[in-house]
Write a structure and sequence with these properties.
The structure is a homodimer. With about 400 residues, chain A is of the alpha/beta class. Chain A is about 40% helix and about 15% strand. A seven-stranded mixed β-sheet of chain A has the order 2-10-9-8-7-3-4, with helices on both faces. In chain A, helix 5 crosses helix 10.
């Protein structure tokens, strides 16, 4: 067999990107006949279309030419100031607008932080499991992942042993309604985490896309405020994707000034700046307290959807299956009996027109637990949730009766 | 003196980013009393604010929820199809929408191409001088630049010797009204370039942000169409920044499918996708031929502005100064007598309330010609152009009379 020579050579990092089998399978889930719990999409019912339309119209009519011109890499000043002030809600009272950098969605923040901190082989600490999109972003910079021990209460600060933290470039953590598990770090662990990281000089990247979507339990202070008090370096990522709409691609990074300064230079080389019009329109939407009235409705919607799924699981899942009960966010995490491989379960589920994301790709720096899977409950209507969960329950039960070997 | 240890370690690449002296100086140029020829900003007069506002309103009213939801990484399908078809105007008739990837402005394309092609030490060929933003993007991936010999007709294909092209990951070229020089590659050189690159297996990155802004001379076929015919790998970058407005941050990459496939994975890790709403609104704006009526007005505006500057230079610049006469775009390039350093000239110019960008930072992989500078003519009103050029002419003349040594 002759091989045609490629007229180009990709970088080492690009050669290492492989087309994930999961992604190929999940493409199928976009077919309308599939009941998909695989997506990470927020519920479009929650998008304030009219308010956003009015905001775009106001901005373009009043400041059209500025809104359509290049803007500063740091972001639109009034939006940076809004973010800085808003952080008081998560217990960080003293944030300056100059510690805020506007980005094109949190995913871009992850890419920029990869550029900032990761050399090939650098140690990076991640929860186990962790957010797949972060692992994909960081991986382009070829880190050596180390998993931090994690249980149903989130990451275990005592697992940050001297050996584990040594020379770590950062720890990446999602304290609220984590993706993929839906678990939340309690106050005691938050305090222990920031103290340990302050003492060990490990920066914390606090990714909090879902914090505003709490529909049970009590608000907890974020790692940013706790960390500042404890002398830790905390870099907080926030986004408007879940409180307004993801199609805007708007997020932000909060960090100490020397880190922001470097990130501004990196952002300039990455995409110059985030769309001026979008920043101005989002600021126009939220500047007079819109989120205070909008968010309760979104939370109620998500709470209801979560309830539908929990009720259905209780009814249809075999008794040897366990799952998390999230206090907010979009996801829950299912642990199957140890002998069931969720990759195989997915194949059968798709044949039966149901989809989810198997747990394996969420693990880095540790042997994956292949008997786990992630379910998203926010976009599927109640009846379809019941139908899909019933199907999954049946397939799981069948896995325990020897059908797997057939 | 004691040094406080940093509680974090940046990557090698981030440590190498230095705050450019030029950037610090140019910050001054944002003061309103400065006549600035330094900017790279298009003229806001040319932004079709009303058409864009109508488009956003239509999209949000008719498809608000889709426009605000996550979208495919490849981009909005109708916009990809529009771009593919539009390429016939530059002589590429057979482009499939699947060879088009939508990005958040051309600058992002440069970042993604750096990720795709550059390992530390990889040889990258650039024009001499070349676009500063590209050099900044690529530099994050630590290439070894090699300059391709360039004259007032653009890059010289005969300069692509065997030694120079060997193991080059790509050549980066701006064939139309180049930034910074304003020069255009003639048809003969275009053909020679794509033939040489086809034969030497060097991919060409054709960056063409200004191609639609031609106001003199005749349209020439782009490297994409010529390259395809000659068997070269051409990756073409386009943008809506200059034909509509830069604050939207919308551009595109055209490339062979295997390259697009890798870039899609890279883009997913970089920012998931470009804002759905922006893509839909831009498509809504241009889908019925808007640019055919809009662009002539923009071209006329730029032609006029360019004329103001050329006239003023003719009148006020000493006879030993030369400059390019662009057929389009936003910039022209000035060559001073060899003994004048444009960095020093800038210091004196700013004291006299005029700014430009000195030539030095545009050079990579070669000794910079420090007696050069870039002028942008598009945003400054006629009288201010005359005033600023008169001041510059005087300062240049003074440089020749020994004042430099004072």
């Amino acid at each position: 067999m002759s091989v045609t020579p490629q007229p180009y050579t990709f970088s080492q990092r690009a050669q290492k990107i492989t087309s994930s089998a999961i992604r190929e399978i999940l493409k199928v889930t976009e077919r309308p006949e599939i009941i998909s719990f695989a997506g990470g999409l927020p519920a479009p019912k929650g998008f304030p279309v009219d308010a956003i339309n009015t905001a775009f119209d106001n901005v373009l009519r009043q400041n059209g030419r500025s809104a359509l011109q290049y803007g500063p890499t740091e972001g639109y000043a009034p939006l940076r100031a809004w973010v800085a002030q808003d952080l008081a809600r998560v217990g960080a009272n003293d944030v300056s607008p100059e510690e805020v950098l506007i980005v094109s969605g949190s995913q871009q923040a992850l890419d920029m932080l990869g550029k900032l901190f990761i050399d090939p082989g650098s140690k990076v600490l991640v929860e186990s499991p962790s957010y797949l999109g972060a692992l994909q972003s960081f991986s382009l910079f070829e880190p050596a992942y180390q998993a931090v021990p994690t249980d149903l209460g989130g990451l275990i600060p005592k697992g940050l042993t001297d050996e584990r933290v040594q020379d770590a470039r950062f720890i990446y953590a999602l304290p609220n309604f984590q993706n993929p598990t839906g678990t939340t770090l309690n106050l005691e662990r938050r305090k222990a985490l920031v103290q340990r990281c302050a003492q060990a000089n490990v920066p914390i990247i606090e990714d909090d896309p879902y914090g505003d979507l709490r529909y049970a339990g009590e608000d907890l202070p974020g790692l940013l405020g706790l960390g500042r008090a404890a002398g830790a370096t905390v870099i907080r990522l926030g986004t408007f994707s879940k409180v307004l709409a993801p199609g805007l691609r708007l997020g932000y990074i909060v960090a100490p000034r020397p880190i922001i300064a470097k990130l501004v230079q990196i952002k300039q080389a990455t995409d110059l700046h985030t769309a001026t019009l979008t920043q101005m329109a989002v600021y126009e939407t939220i500047k007079s307290g819109f989120l205070k009235t909008h968010l309760p409705a979104v939370r109620e919607l998500y709470k209801q959807q979560c309830g539908y799924m929990l009720t259905a699981m209780q009814e249809f899942f075999p008794s040897d299956v366990t799952w998390t009960k999230p206090e907010g966010g979009m996801f829950l995490w299912v642990t199957l009996p140890g002998h069931i491989d969720s990759n195989e379960l997915l194949q059968r589920a798709i044949q039966n027109k149901v989809a989810f994301v198997p747990g394996e790709p969420f693990y880095a720096g540790v042997t994956p637990q292949t008997n786990t899977l992630r379910l998203s409950f926010v976009t599927v209507p109640e009846e379809k949730i019941r139908e899909g969960i019933a199907t999954l329950g049946r397939l799981i039960a069948e896995s325990g009766t020897g059908l797997k070997a057939a």
